[in-house]
Write a structure and sequence with these properties.
435 residues; alpha/beta; 13% strand
C-alpha cells in the first residue's frame, strides 16, 4: 500500500477576484458563508485543516502607493480571520481550523485567551499559524516605526511561545471538577499564576479560560529562511512550505527534520505541507489551455508582482520586466518567498519569474484529476512526505475550484490510497499525527 499524505487548504478572508466569473461569495464573501461552505466541502473530502492567512496593513510596497492594492483588491480588504475561524469551527465537526495571528499584533495573554476560546468552541480542532509579521507598514499600525530585524523577531517569538505555553498550562487538565456535592466548579489549587518575566514580555497569569481540549492549539508555521526553519523545527506541528520542484521540496524537508532532531524532537511529529495549486481539466489539453489562458492574462503578471511586493516589502515596479533582476535580493520581510521567486542564478527575466512564481505552487500540477493525483503521489514518494497545502491558482477562490479539488482530485487520490477517506481522530494535533 502507498503511504498516505496529508492535505490542507490555504486561503484568506478577502474580496478575492470579485469581478471574475464564479467569484468567492458572488463578490460579497464577508458574511463568511462562502468560507463555511468551502470548509464543509473540505471536511467531506477529509482535509486535515483549512488555513486562514492574514496581514495587518494596506500595503504600498508596489510603486510606493496603495493604488494597485485597493484598485485591484490585492491583499485588501482583508478581514480578521479569528472570528471566521470560530464561525467555521462551529459549523464543522472534524476539519481543523487554523487562524493566522501575529506575535506583533496580539499581547500574549490576549492571544492565549482567544486561542483557548476557539479551541473550546471547535472542540479541539483549532490551530494557530504563528507569524511575526513582515511588513513595516504593519509595524506602523502598532506604534512602531519599522519592524525589528528578522532574527530579533524570531528571538521575541521564542519567548512569546514560552509565555503562551505557560498560560495554557496555568490550569491543570483536571482543574474543572464541577462537583455538586461540594458546590465546587474549579479546584483553585490547580489554577495558578505564572509570574512570567522575560526579556521582552511580562505576564502574571493565570489564564481566565478553561483549558484547551488539546492542551494547546496546534502550532502551524511557515519557515523559509534558515532561522525560520529552525523556529519551525523547534515548535511546529505542521509547516507551510514552498520550494522549487521535487528536489527543492526534499531538500527543505530533510533540512527541517534534521533541525528537529538537533532540537530534541521526533521529526515525524512535524508534518510539512508544500503549497500546490493544481489546474485541472477534463483532458490534459483542457488543463494546459486553462493554464495558458491564465498566465497570458494581461493582469496576471502585475497581480503576481504586486502580491510579492507586499510579502517582501520590495517594490518590483522598479525593475524592467524583460530583464533579469539586477542582483540577489534580500529583505527583512518574507525571505523564503523571495528566494523561491527570484530563482537566483537562473538568468530568467522578471516576466518569466512572475509566470513561474505567480501561482505559489511548489511543483507544476496541470492535467486531469487522475494525472495530477499520480504526479502528487510520485512527488511525495520522492520527497518522503508529508503532504500538500492546496491553494487556488493565482488566488482565485471559487465554489467551482473548490469542487474541482474536493469532487475531482481528492477522489482520484483516495482511489490510489494516498489520502484518508474518513477521520479517526477528534483533535487536530492527533489528526496530524495519524500517519
Amino acid at each position: 500500500m502507498p503511504k498516505k499524505f496529508h492535505l490542507g487548504w490555504f486561503t484568506d478572508f478577502s474580496a478575492d477576484h470579485w469581478n471574475q466569473p464564479f467569484a468567492a461569495g458572488g463578490g460579497n464573501p464577508f458574511n463568511g458563508r462562502f468560507y463555511v461552505e468551502m470548509a464543509q466541502a473540505l471536511e467531506r473530502a477529509c482535509f486535515d485543516y483549512i488555513m486562514l492567512v492574514d496581514t495587518l496593513m494596506v500595503s504600498e510596497s508596489y510603486g510606493g502607493t496603495t493604488e494597485a492594492y485597493l484598485k485591484n483588491a490585492i491583499m485588501v480588504p482583508k478581514h480578521d480571520v479569528a472570528p471566521l475561524a470560530t464561525l467555521i469551527g462551529a459549523n464543522t465537526s472534524k476539519l481543523g481550523v487554523v487562524a493566522t495571528m501575529s506575535t506583533m499584533g496580539y499581547p500574549p495573554f490576549l492571544l492565549a485567551r482567544l486561542a483557548a476560546t476557539i479551541d473550546n468552541i471547535s472542540e479541539g480542532r483549532f490551530g494557530w499559524n504563528i507569524v511575526t509579521s513582515g511588513e513595516d507598514t504593519a509595524a506602523q499600525n502598532f506604534g512602531l516605526d519599522k519592524l525589528p530585524p528578522r532574527e530579533l523577531r524570531y528571538d521575541m517569538a521564542d519567548e512569546y511561545l514560552d509565555l503562551v505555553g505557560q498560560l495554557w498550562a496555568s490550569w491543570d487538565p483536571d482543574a474543572v471538577v464541577m462537583d455538586r456535592a461540594s458546590d465546587t466548579y474549579a479546584d483553585f489549587t490547580k489554577v495558578r499564576p505564572i509570574h512570567f518575566e522575560g526579556k521582552y514580555f511580562k505576564c502574571r497569569g493565570p489564564l481566565n479560560t478553561v483549558p484547551c481540549p488539546q492542551g494547546r492549539p496546534a502550532y502551524i508555521q511557515a519557515g523559509g529562511s534558515p532561522r525560520g526553519r529552525g523556529f519551525a523545527a523547534q515548535h511546529a506541528d505542521s509547516v507551510i512550505a514552498t520550494a522549487n520542484g521535487v528536489e527543492g521540496m526534499k531538500a527543505y524537508r530533510d533540512d527541517v527534520r534534521a533541525k528537529a532532531v538537533a532540537a530534541g524532537r521526533n521529526p515525524d511529529d512535524i508534518k510539512i505541507l508544500f503549497l500546490a495549486a493544481p489546474i485541472l481539466g477534463e483532458t490534459e489539453q483542457d488543463a494546459r489551455d486553462k493554464h495558458r489562458r491564465t498566465v497570458n492574462d494581461p493582469h496576471f503578471i502585475r497581480h503576481a508582482l504586486t502580491l510579492l511586493s507586499s510579502f517582501t516589502d520590495i517594490d518590483f515596479s522598479q525593475y524592467a520586466l524583460d530583464q533579469p533582476l539586477p542582483g540577489k535580493l534580500v529583505t527583512n520581510g518574507e525571505q523564503g518567498s523571495l528566494d523561491k521567486f527570484q530563482q537566483w542564478g537562473s538568468g530568467k527575466t522578471l516576466r518569466q519569474l512572475a509566470i513561474d512564481g505567480g501561482s505559489e505552487s511548489s511543483i507544476e500540477l496541470v492535467g486531469t484529476p487522475d494525472a495530477v493525483a499520480e504526479k502528487m503521489g510520485e512527488a511525495m514518494e520522492a520527497v518522503g512526505g508529508d503532504g500538500f497545502l492546496i491553494t487556488s491558482p493565482y488566488g482565485k477562490n471559487s465554489r467551482r475550484y473548490t469542487a474541482e479539488i474536493t469532487d475531482g482530485l481528492v477522489p482520484a487520490l483516495q482511489r490510489r490510497g494516498l489520502t484518508r477517506t474518513e477521520y479517526t481522530k477528534t483533535h487536530l494535533r492527533d489528526t496530524l499525527k495519524e500517519f
